[in-house]
Amino acid sequence: MTPPSSTSIPPLRWGILGTGGIAHDFVGDLPLLSSASVTAVGSRRQETADAFGDEFGIAHRHTDAEALADDDTVDAVYVSTPHPMHFDGAMAAIDAGKAVLVEKAFTVNAGQAEQLVRRAREKQVFLMEAMWTRFLPHIVAVRDVLASGRLGDIVTVSADHGQWFPDDPENRLFAPALGGGALLDLGIYPLSFASMILGPPKRMAMIDDPAFTGVDGQISVVLGYDGGAQAVVNTTLRAVSPTVAAIVGRDARLEIDSAWYRPSRFTITDRDGHAEAFEFPHEGHGLRYEAAEVARCVAAGQLESAVMPLDETVQIMGTMDEIRRRGGYSLPGDPDS
Ligand SMILES: NC(=O)c1ccc[n+]([C@@H]2O[C@H](COP(=O)([O-])OP(=O)(O)OC[C@H]3O[C@@H](n4cnc5c(N)ncnc54)[C@H](OP(=O)(O)O)[C@@H]3O)[C@@H](O)[C@H]2O)c1
Fold this sequence. Notes:
single chain, 337 residues, alpha/beta, 14 strands, globular, binds NADP nicotinamide-adenine-dinucleotide phosphate
């Protein structure tokens, strides 16, 4: 299978809010999408805005979200701050009438997500969660396989996302004030994957264990769906887990190689054991595919993506709210915080 062509993607001028790790990856991947440009950056400090601007040749440098959102050269704002800051950054862009791509986790909780979605719909602006995995060529192909019915009725979905981090209270992943924890950073990938395949869960069982700062350090969740299908999800900040995913159907199973949430490949094994492997040639990081989706939707006048719908983003935030409620993990921006 070959990846979709990126030659016909409409132009879009990006403004980047936040100059951290993923902002570097996102802007670094955009040159592979020839129609995209970055015209402005927003940072908390002039020095960091200038450093990012110098590194990537970005002309307009701002020191707050509102100024970035009001920049006339910007068509779409990419919100790449820590999760608790997504709400204000995205709201400023929506209020300025800009299209908005918000990093995962979209917000801290479903209540914030609902507010952003409501405001975007009022203002008639495009809004999307930056769940980049959904737009990667191998996941596009997974959806094609599912639509073809080759796997038969889906019985089980399993996926994990674990990474190792040293015990550092300054690390965003461990910092309660920055929305730390495995769930919203890593666990969201397998939860979103399960949602893409099986829809909203009807039942849930979970076991959790806190990290040394009190944020969630490891969580395993089993989700139950109408019709009897189940999803098994693990996420941890303590170890590099296999990061593999499987979709198990009555007729065949599809297994995505590590790291399944990045550009990868998969194998389909029929019930009789016959296996077929699928490769997806790629270059770069892979973040440009979500940027291409924003450009396509904006050019077509769509207010959301059919691949990552806003109601589904809110639903996934609600699932994570319930997991955090059961585990007793609250975050800044929660009603009880
Ligand atoms: N799609 C992916 O593969 C992926 C990967 C990693 C992270 N993410 C998501 O992207 C977001 C950012 O993650 P990251 O790893 O890029 O984080 P990071 O390296 O810590 O960068 C976050 C940036 O946000 C800005 N910021 C605003 N308020 C801040 C505050 N109070 N404390 C710290 N930084 C603040 C800072 O930029 P300024 O100094 O310029 O203001 C900072 O550099 C998170 O929501 C995360 O889940 C996505």
